[in-house]
Amino acid sequence: MRYRFASCVLDTDRHVLFRDDVPVAVEPQVFDLLQLLVETPDRLLTRDEIVGRVWQGRIVSESAISARIASARKAVGDDGKRQAVIQTVSRRGLKLAVTVTVEGAAPSAAPAPAASPPPRIRYTTTPNGREVAWSLSGSGPPVVIASYIATDLEADWTLPTERALFEAIGAQNTLLRYDPSGTGQSGRGMPQLDYDLQADELKAAADAAGLERFALLARSGAALTAIHFAARYPERVSRMLIVGGYAEGWERRALTGDAGSAAMMQLVTEGWRNPEGAFGSTFLLAYLPEGPIEAVEGLARVMREAVDPEAEMALRHLQHTSSVLHLLPRIACPTLILHARRDRIHPVSEARKLAAGIPDAELITFDTANHMPLLGHPLWQAHLDATLEFLGRPG
Predict the structure, then answer these.
(1) Could you give the C-alpha distances from 230 to 239, 335, 388, in angstroms and in order?
(2) Which domains does the chain have, with CATH numbers?
(3) pTM of the predicted structure, to 2 decimals
(4) Over the stretch 353-374, which tens digit does the pLDDT of each residue have?
(5) Res 279: pLDDT
(6) Bridge partners, 230 (sequence order)
(7) Which range, of 185-199, 270-284, 335-349, averages the lowest pLDDT?
(8) CA-CA 20 to 30 A from 59: which of 185, 199, 225, 299?
């Protein structure tokens, strides 16, 4: 639905707020607060109603509530002094001070992909005896997605944001996905904590699928595996697309003074260890603060179920302590790097390191804090267009 009020439109299907026809990035809790207000425009909302909807009834401080209200006012062009759009009734609650018009879903809204069965899963074995599950879909020049920490070929396909990406690529390319050993459909256990062995898993999946030369798509920490592979097997890689990647893990960066990144990653680590504890929500939102929250929660759920906690932490430690700076000059294929300008986990300075180190690499940045794009975010389509254009280039 679309709710039009003041100079704003709140599109709940796309999880986007527009002001004067321009998308406005808001935190998920701010969006939920605005949605509650526009859905009940003629009512005075009590504190308990707001906490129940926005914080699911959890204990929350008055300062946290006030901060979200202030952010909501700022997002719609209002402030606490004027209260022209969002009005506070002292000691009673909150209400909208403007008229709301309800419209149907926008014709341009991105529909959720239709449910479809996941591609058939096959298996192969690495030279050292590890089983690797792989799956092929689409048609056209081949693309291999280098897998990051926790993937599941079957469960990933059920996530709208992942399936939208897979099917968009599959419309123009043959797409190979695989689960690293110890994750997802490749079974449980400790994965291989060595990037050369991880590169062998990628190679085993590509060999089993009959792909001799292909484009590589690597997201987040998968960039480390992809770079090792491209440096080791340059004849196999036609081009490489890195999304949200980095040259040095956060512990390496902390040694050179990037304390902010290290502190944020520590919060993420604690959230993974104890998702129900104080840092659980921090883990969910640290990577993807602009949401949509449903996509964030879906990804987190699948990732937690795809790998054992001990294996997850071991893989994170490997990524956090690794560097591929020495391998970058050996990358011989055309390379495009896509990165968020306001990424707090792996800052844009890491993208610049990659672009500076890889010969003739291109860098495109997007004005977002989301580590990776999600379906329903205002920049999803622009990011997808850049992805498809690069993967569709001849040669």
Answers:
(1) 9, 11, 20
(2) 2-103 (1.10.10.10), 121-391 (3.40.50.1820)
(3) 0.70
(4) 999 999 999 999 999 999 998 9
(5) 44
(6) none
(7) 270-284
(8) 299
